[in-house]
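Ticket #4471: structure output looks truncated?

Reporter: J.K.
Steps to reproduce: submitted the chain below (117 residues) through the standard prediction queue, then opened the result file.
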Amino acid sequence: MTTIEQIAEAILRDDNLSARALVQEFLRNQPVLAEIPRPETDNPTLVVAAALLELFALRTQQSAPAWTRQVGPMEQPRYLLKSATHMRRLRDLCRDAAPEPLRRRHLYAPPDYLAFA
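Returned output as attached by the reporter:
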């Protein structure tokens, strides 16, 4: 069974294809997001995991786990699409329109990031 930690690690490796497949598998199991335990990991994986759970909770109209509120932002801003580092318009879109749970943690992606899920 896919964990939120595996998804976060795939994203941090810039392995978007694996991340998308892992998210689909994760959400297909229809998890009760509020019950997902805090990963036994440190930043940056923990930050990405918390942001993703809040994003999924927002999109599925569920509550996020309580522990996510205690996780702060990334030390350095991070774009979740590698191409945003050299494409100014994409970078601007990611910075200005990233979903709020990501933006609050200094993670930047397009507004429809992982929306297929």
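Triage note (M.O.): checked the attachment and the full token line is present. The chain has one domain: 4-108.
Status: closed, working as intended.
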